[in-house]
Structure formats: structure tokens, C-alpha cells
Design brief:
This protein has 357 residues and is an alpha/beta fold. 28% of the residues lie in helices and 24% in strands. The protein has ten helices and 16 strands. The strands form two sheets. Strands 1, 10, 11, 12, 13, 14, 15 and 16 form an eight-stranded mixed β-sheet that branches. β4, α4 and β5 form a beta-alpha-beta unit. α4 crosses α5. The two termini are 21 Å apart.
Length: 357
């Protein structure tokens, strides 16, 4: 069986580094845990870091977090489906919202549960996923301010989630100006401008973040140390908090190109023959993990001599060249992961999960 390992000391190092930076800048922040898919063992490690705020896109995960740490502020980070509204009021202290009708329903449910539900209004800033259009914002806020049981604590935006639109200083200044317009128009304080996600951290590190942006939601940078502008690892951060370990279940020296008539494989892929490889062989390892667990393009082999060839539903094929490390059946190969790869593995019930301390 393949195993996904979380290295706690590396996670804590990344957390402490980010927390120090945010405290120096007087910026509030929370951890986005949707990557962890509600795994209590991993959530326990995150909560042990001293986290005050957790963000997730699944209300079932927020329910788990509230059970484990009732005092942690929970934030639901996507527009709410109608059928989830009672649970969102029960288990989310805050939610990101973009639809007036949904906020009305949240208001009604909050009154039923005798609660005040906090909302952050998400604004469309160019990436064309969720968000209220800027020209509609004043009217939108006016209607929301009238609703009982609802407290507007901020406005926010997402970047790089759909079309890859990146945050810039100008876009974040625009976001901060929206706050000033709302505050001046309605004489209401809006505590948070939540314009910071992992993709925004380089602007913070490079001293290009507008002063008005005072709230971040961080997932990928914490777990992978990744600078999404450059694709490199941030200085003084770990990129290997997670490691996938998979056992070799076959190891044979084989030709490097297939033989026979080629058609699409079950994944819909077609291959072209590289004639320069005729007559050449390589040691090929089959691993006990497959497409049901992860897309191979999100795997990062830990050794330069390893190359991922492809995968079927339950098996991964890796070329080992001359097998200079003398691997044999029963040995394991190790991989770092990209974010979407870790998300798949964490959502797979076929991969064991472990914490390493």
C-alpha cells in the first residue's frame, strides 16, 4: 500500500515563518485546510500549531474542526448551496458570499439559531470565478446591511483560481478602495480586506502589498512553500511537508518503446513513437498507486534518475534507467507532490496517511 506522510517539524517551521511575517506586518491570517479533506489526524497537527482561524470549502470539514477545537474561528470559503445553509450557520462562524438571496436565507437561519453570522463579500477582480461585480457593490452592500443576524466583517477577492489572473499592487489597491467607498457611503467599519492568498505572498515579501490589505488565507504556501509567481520554493521554507511513498510491485528491464498497433489507452491518451529509442531498454518499476489516487503529472520524483512514464487506474510506471540504486521488488520510491496531487491522494481511501515527528 502507498503511504502519504506529513512531516510535522517541516509544517511547523513553515507555519512559524509565515506567522512571524504576518505579525510583523499586523496582518490577520487563517489556514485553508480544504487540502486535508477532513482527516482528523492531520487536522490535529495543524490545530496544534496555535491556529486561531481555519478556512475550508466543505461544511463537513468545518463540523469536524468545531468538534476538535470549538474556539477556533471557522470560515466557509465558497458561496453557500441552499441545502447547506443550516449547517453553515451551525459550524461556520464566517462565510464568503456573493449572492443576495443566499445571504437572506443565511440571515433567516441565523435568527432561527439565535446567532449572528459574519460574512465577507467577495468581489470580482478579473479571474471570473466567484465575486460581485464592482459596479453593483454599493447597492449590494446596502441590501446586506439591512439584514438581521448578519455582520459584514470584510470584502475579499480571489486570484489565480480559474484563468490564472495574478494579483498585482494595482488590483489590490482597487480592492482596498472598494472598502473605503463602502465605509464612506454607509458610515460602517469594514474590518478586513481579505485580498491575500498564497499567490499574494510574493507581493508581501517584496514590500509591494498595499497597506489596506490586512487579511490572508493561506494553504499552498504553508504546505508546499511555493512561490506561485516563480514556481520556486520560498527562502527559509520547506517544499516537502508531504511525501508519497509507494512500493515497487514489479521491476523488470524492458524496451523503452511499445510494440504493436497503437490506439488510445483507457485514459484517452495517444502516443507517438520516438524512433531514436528503438533497441534501447530501461529498468521499469510498477508501483502500487494509480490514477484512482493521483494524476502522475503532479508527482515530483525525489531522484533525478527516476522518470514517471504514466499510470493506469491502480498502477504507476516509473523508469529507473540503469537502476543504479539497485532497487528491487518490495522497496519503495519517494515523491514530493504538487498541491493538486496531494489533494487527490488525501481524498483517496486507498492511500494510508501517517504523521512523522
Amino acid at each position: 500500500m502507498a503511504v502519504l506522510k506529513l512531516y510535522y517539524d517541516k509544517l511547523k517551521h513553515n507555519y512559524d515563518h509565515l506567522d512571524k511575517v504576518f505579525k510583523e506586518k499586523k496582518i490577520d491570517w487563517g489556514i485553508v485546510t480544504k487540502l486535508l479533506c477532513g482527516h482528523e489526524m492531520f487536522l490535529e497537527e495543524v490545530l496544534s500549531l496555535g491556529v486561531k482561524e481555519i478556512h475550508d470549502s466543505r461544511v463537513t470539514n468545518l463540523k469536524t474542526i468545531k468538534k476538535m477545537a470549538p474556539d477556533v474561528q471557522t470560515v466557509y470559503i465558497k458561496p453557500a448551496p441552499k441545502q447547506s445553509i443550516p449547517d453553515i450557520i451551525t459550524y461556520a462562524d464566517v462565510s464568503f458570499q456573493t449572492e443576495l438571496d443566499i445571504i437572506r436565507l443565511l440571515s433567516e437561519e441565523a435568527i432561527r439559531q439565535q446567532k449572528v453570522h459574519k460574512v465577507i463579500i467577495m468581489i470580482e477582480m478579473g479571474d471570473l470565478r466567484e465575486g460581485v461585480m464592482g459596479e453593483e457593490l454599493v447597492d449590494f452592500y446596502e441590501k446586506v446591511f439591512e439584514l438581521p443576524g448578519i455582520s459584514v466583517i470584510g470584502l475579499g477577492a480571489n486570484f489565480n483560481c480559474l484563468y490564472g489572473v495574478m494579483p498585482t499592487r494595482d488590483k489590490l489597491i482597487q480592492l482596498s478602495l472598494y472598502k473605503q467607498v463602502i465605509e464612506a457611503k454607509f458610515n460602517r467599519a469594514i474590518p478586513w480586506v481579505s485580498g491575500g492568498t498564497s499567490v499574494t505572498i510574493p507581493l508581501l515579501f517584496n514590500h509591494q502589498l498595499p497597506a489596506g490589505v490586512n487579511h490572508f488565507r493561506i494553504g499552498e504556501a504553508l504546505f508546499f512553500g511555493l512561490n506561485l509567481f516563480t514556481g520556486e520554493t520560498f527562502d527559509n521554507m520547506h517544499d516537502d511537508v508531504f511525501e508519497l511513498v509507494a512500493e515497487i510491485i514489479e521491476l523488470t528491464e524492458k524496451p523503452m518503446i511499445p510494440s504493436g498497433v497503437l490506439a488510445e489507452n483507457p485514459s484517452g491518451e495517444s502516443f507517438e513513437i520516438d524512433e531514436s529509442l528503438y533497441g534501447k531498454t530501461s529498468h521499469r518499476a510498477i508501483l502500487d498507486v494509480g490514477l484512482l489516487d493521483i494524476n502522475p503529472k503532479f508527482l515530483l520524483p525525489k531522484e533525478e534518475s527516476m522518470a514517471v512514464v504514466g499510470a493506469s487506474s491502480d498502477m504507476l510506471v516509473v523508469e529507473l534507467g540503469t537502476n543504479e540504486n539497485k532497487y528491487k521488488v518490495g522497496d519503495v520510491l519517494r515523491f514530493n507532490l504538487r498541491y493538486m496531487g496531494a489533494l487527490s491522494v488525501l481524498n483517496s481511501r486507498y492511500v494510508e496517511k501517517q504523521v512523522v515527528k
